[in-house]
Each structure stands twice: as structure tokens, then as C-alpha cells.
Specification:
elongated; 8 helices; alpha+beta; about 290 residues; 3-stranded antiparallel sheet; 10 strands
């Protein structure tokens, strides 16, 4: 007798699948977040490093690297550990965290706004997005289950004569005779189709996420139902998030430019934002 097999996934496999979905969503929204801003005057990779730290809510410092006598001292960006605070809760001194053991990073304490300029994010975007991403993953897992249940065949419990009778029905025969002793028993999941509702739910959650990271997130189905006031209020919220962050980064970079003679600048990537805006709104009438 052949050994029966099963295709059911284990708890470990399902957990790994969920983690993959969460990771992919987080990467997707991080890439979108990075695309909102354009950094000028930075070396290759520094802009990504800074925005990655900000996305994860990590403090970051800009300071001068140690160099040989007579050489120009470039600036660098790293995390730091504070040492003492003033009356406004600003670090007085910091020690740069030399996680890669770079010999050019100073090991002594640096004075805030003299030897180093600090940036402390007000929002941990990664943390804010986690519960929303969990909802997206839950929706994806439910869609997956719902789709599998709708793939279940129509199952009949009966004799060979019963199978032949059912085959006659499925073959569109005009007349199918039943023996009066025959009883039809079938198995059905009776599962309602909810994938369309779950897709709408995902659109709403993604719109909330995109608004948080500074991108207009209304999809076509939603935009067609929004009034002018609703669109304007949503735009104000979106602009508020990204403009506050740009202003905060600008103040930080301006102080660094003043101390170190650099020419750092951050601006909104208008070309990217306009492209995303057109993708969301092109051809969609707004109701008064």
C-alpha cells in the first residue's frame, strides 16, 4: 500500500513565509521613503546611510575625520553615544560609535555644536510602519487561504455508479436517471469569496503608509470618491510629514556647513513626487 503524503505547510514554514512578506514590504516602503529626498554635496553612499538611519529612528552625528598633518579633513556621519545633557535635553558631549573600527574616527569625546553636529529623528518610521505592515501581511495570508479554499474540488462520496451519474451531470446530458436507492453525499467548504474586499483593505492600509512617508497614496477607487476638502486635508497631512523632516535635516546640515565649511543640502525630489502623483491621479475626476 502506497504511503500517503500531505502538502500542508508546517508552522515553521508559515512563519518563514510571513517574515519574508514583512521584510519585502519594509524594503519596498523604505525605498519609496529614500526616493522622496534628494541630497546634494555628499559623497557616494552617504545620502543612503543618513536616510537609512533616519528611517530607523537612529541618532546620527556629522564630524571631522582624523587625517595626517597637512591633509584636508573630510566630514563623516555615524551614530553616537551621549555624555551628559543640558537643560533642554540636548547632549553636551558625545562619543562616536566606531562600529567598523575605522582609525580615522576620533575616539575622544566631542562637544556638541563645536566638534560635532547632531541629528535626532522625531519619528521612527520603521517602528511606525511595523503594525501597518502586519495588517498587510495578515491580508495577504488570508487572501492566500481564501484562494486555496476556492480551489477545492467538488467532492462526491459514493459508489462507481454514483461517480458515473455525477459524470453524466457534468457532461451536460439532457437526461440522467437515478436509482431510487442512491443517495448523493458531497463535501463543500461553502467559503465566501472575500479577496476583492481584502484588496480594498490593502489599498487603504498602503495609502496610510504612503501618507506617513510623504507620498500621496490614494488609489483610483478612493480618489474618485473624495471631495476637494478631503483631498486637500490629506495633502496637508502628507506635506506636513515630509516638510517637517526636510526642515529638520536642513537645520542640521546648515549648522554643519557653518562649522565645517561644507555645502550640504537636502531638497524634496519633486520630479519623483510629481511622477507618483500623476500615477495616482491621472484621469481621475475629483468630486465637488
Amino acid at each position: 500500500m502506497a504511503k500517503s503524503t500531505t502538502k500542508f505547510q508546517t508552522d515553521a514554514e508559515l512563519s518563514a513565509f510571513r517574515e519574508t512578506l514583512k521584510y519585502n514590504y519594509l524594503k519596498k516602503f523604505k525605498v519609496l521613503f529614500l526616493s522622496v529626498f534628494e541630497f546634494k554635496g555628499f559623497d557616494y553612499g552617504e545620502d543612503y546611510y543618513i536616510l537609512d538611519k533616519i528611517f530607523n529612528g537612529e541618532n546620527i552625528a556629522v564630524f571631522k575625520l582624523k587625517t595626517a598633518v597637512g591633509e584636508e579633513s573630510p566630514c563623516a556621519f555615524q551614530s553616537y553615544s551621549p555624555e551628559g545633557y543640558d537643560m533642554y535635553n540636548n547632549p553636551v558631549r558625545v562619543r562616536i560609535l566606531n562600529l567598523r573600527s575605522d582609525p580615522r574616527i576620533p575616539s575622544q569625546y566631542l562637544s556638541n555644536n563645536i566638534d560635532v553636529v547632531l541629528f535626532r529623528p522625531q519619528i521612527n518610521y520603521s517602528s511606525q510602519l511595523q503594525p501597518l505592515i502586519e495588517l498587510l501581511v495578515d491580508a495577504d495570508m488570508t487572501i492566500r487561504t481564501n484562494l486555496k479554499l476556492h480551489k477545492m474540488p467538488f467532492m462526491i462520496d459514493g459508489s462507481d455508479q454514483m461517480k458515473k451519474t455525477i459524470n453524466d451531470v457534468l457532461s451536460d446530458k439532457a437526461l440522467v436517471a437515478l436509482d431510487e436507492t442512491m443517495t448523493i453525499r458531497s463535501a463543500s467548504t461553502n467559503t465566501p469569496y472575500i479577496i476583492d474586499k481584502l484588496e480594498q483593505f490593502k489599498i487603504a492600509i498602503e495609502s496610510r503608509i504612503l501618507s506617513l512617508i510623504g507620498i500621496k497614496g490614494q488609489k483610483m477607487e478612493k480618489m474618485a470618491q473624495m471631495t476637494v476638502d478631503e483631498v486637500n486635508n490629506n495633502s496637508e497631512e502628507i506635506n506636513g510629514f515630509k516638510n517637517h523632516l526636510v526642515d529638520s535635516i536642513t537645520k542640521w546640515l546648515n549648522k554643519a556647513n557653518e562649522l565645517f565649511g561644507t555645502s550640504y543640502e537636502v531638497v524634496l525630489n519633486d520630479e519623483y513626487l510629481e511622477m507618483k502623483d500623476e500615477e495616482q491621479q491621472n484621469g481621475i475626476p475629483v468630486q465637488e
